[in-house]
Design a protein that fits this description.
- There is one protein chain.
- With about 190 residues, the chain is an alpha/beta fold.
- The chain is about 55% helix and about 15% strand.
- The longest helix has 15 residues.
- The chain is globular, with a radius of gyration of 16 Å.
- The protein starts with a strand and ends with a helix.
């Protein structure tokens, strides 16, 4: 199985990269954030980032630090795996334990980033109710996710970034430009 994990700052374009891999290259795209949103809704909670962080830490404590990657791989296999897809792309890896699981399956981690102003404009344009409304809130939210805020089951984006196999900046203003980077940097 070809496995690509995506991580990066909020609004960097992780899901867009995953969608390119799914639509143009036959990958199954599984969003770990969507897994967590679905769980929050099933519990009758809002899908704000604080609730998602709480659920992800709870799952890691109960099922191991790589649980979200493990669940994505299980879903890939249950949906036909290699017989149906050219690989699996999983976004949003936010804990170093998830990288360990990713590497156990032979996958690689790609860190996607962009300038803070570009990212803020992107999240504002998608108009999700749970996204921050000011740049200051956006930056504060990012800072909260960069370092562990408790035990090893909490988010630590800085540690994830440090362990990335590949990194690239996505300050592009067109999907076509991003597609070129995916072709040259990810699909070789």
């Amino acid at each position: 199985m070809k496995l690509i994990g995506l991580s990066g700052t909020n609004g960097a374009g992780k899901d867009t990269v995953a969608e390119i891999l799914a639509e143009k290259h036959g990958f199954l795209f599984i969003s770990m954030t969507d897994m967590l949103r679905n769980e929050a809704l099933a519990r009758g909670l809002t899908t704000d980032r604080e609730n998602l962080r709480t659920i992800s830490a709870e799952w890691r404590r109960e099922h191991g630090l790589g649980v979200l990657v493990d669940r994505a791989v299980e879903q890939y296999k249950s949906q036909g795996g290699d017989a149906k897809y050219n690989g699996l792309v999983v976004s949003s890896i936010r804990n170093p334990g998830e990288i360990g699981s990713l590497h156990t399956y032979g996958g690689e981690l790609l860190w996607v980033d962009a300038d803070v102003g570009v990212r803020y404009e992107r999240i504002q344009s998608r108009k999700r109710a749970d996204d921050p409304t000011t740049l200051e809130e956006f930056v504060k939210q990012q800072e909260a996710e960069m370092q562990h805020s408790g035990d090893e089951a909490t988010l630590s984006m800085a540690d994830v970034k440090a362990r990335a196999d590949k990194t690239f900046m996505n300050n592009f203003d067109s999907v076509e430009a991003l597609e070129q980077v995916v072709e040259t940097s990810i699909i070789q």
